Structures are given as C-alpha cells and as structure tokens.
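Study this chain:
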Amino acid sequence: MSSTINYSLERLLEEDGGRQHILAELTRIQRDYRIAGGKVIELGCGHGRNLAVFQGANEVSGVEGLASAVEHARSRGLNVLQADLAAPLPLPTAAFAAADGRVRLRDAARRA
C-alpha cells in the first residue's frame, strides 16, 4: 500500500518558523541528556531540521517519503532514505534498537 503525500518541501520550510519550540526542546534534550556516540533515526524526517540537532555527535539517519525533502536533507549532509512510511522499511533488522524514547533518554541520563 502506498501512502499519499499531502505536503511539499515549500510547506515544510514555511512552517519552520512556527516550530522553533520543537527545535529548542530537541536541542535541550540533546545537551541535557548528553546524547552522543549513538545511532539516531527519525521516521518522517522532512528536510532534516530536527535530525540535524543530533548530527555531529551521533550517526544520524532519516526516512522520508517526499523526494524534494530527501534531496534537501541530503544537500545538508544528512543520511536520508526515501521510502514509503506506510510500507515495510528497507532497513536492516539490527540497524537500530527498538525502544521507547523515554526509556532511551533515562538510559542516557544514567550514563551521564
């Protein structure tokens, strides 16, 4: 089954201004929990704005359905795969740990 994409790169870029609070919160989480040296994946990563917060200190990957958003993210140096998020993802089974995000943040805090 193929999902319908009802947004555009232009719309994603326009909405960035109203999402500053999300970027600020992700930056705080990355800093406070010292998220570094791991593998971070974002499903439905758009043009990679949120994913870029974790870039540099981590191995980051994204999955996005919109071709123009994938191109934009890749132009920023992000590893983003174009795929239908409604279908099984073409990722190796052991590529990323499956865990609730809150559990992973608590684990990161314990290591700090």
Summary: Residues 44 and 64 are 5 Å apart (CA to CA).
